[in-house]
Amino acid sequence: MYSGEKISVENLNSIGADGFNLYDIDHIYPRSVTKDDSLLNNLVLVKSSENRAKSDNYPIIPEKRKARIAFWAQLKVSGLITEEKFRRLSRQSSLSEEELAGFINRQLVETRQAAKAAANLIKQLLPETQLVYVKAGACQRLPKPPKRFQISQGSRHE
Question: How do residues 29-71 score in pLDDT, each as one tens digit?
Fold first, then answer.
């Protein structure tokens, strides 16, 4: 997607001379920015050397973008990539502060939803267990746990 070189299906799981896989799945918006694992909009198959060169940088460097934009446009017109994926690949500007804040807010919502689901599961599996909710700031003031911490039916702590 970034180099213009053909990807051989036979070599998808092959290791290169450098000891790395020949190919990687890259996140167009870097994982350091957002946890978007959307195949439709954020993931692309690339040579691993291209992925390592791109690293956590966004947008894609101008030389690569200019060399590949016609190909990406052809993929979009053919219905092989979404408009959103094309927009992310061809974008020239960095992510704005508002966009970054939006990513963080969505991740916080997802984290809260996951915590609620985990709490509900614990309540179902261990109805006799009392869950105690603690705010993040309070966790920072807690003493370090002992070297060994064990929870059993009798809630024994050592």
Answer: 998 888 889 999 999 999 999 999 999 999 999 999 999 999 9
CA–CA distance, 27 with 56 (Å, rounded to integer)? 9
Tokens of 18: 């450098």
Q: Report CA dihedral (148, 149, 152, 155) to the nearest 10 degrees.
A: 130
72 class by beta-carbon count within 10 Å (0-12 exposed, 13-18 middle, 19+ buried): buried
Closest CA to 126 of 155, 148, 158, 156: 155
Percent of the residues in the chain that have a pLDDT greater than 70, as a whole number? 85
Residue with tokens 């003031």: 141
Structural contact between residues 66 and 108, judged by C-beta atoms closer than 8 angstroms: no
Q: Which residues contact 1 (CB under 8 A, 6 or more apart)?
A: 26, 44, 45, 46, 68, 72, 89
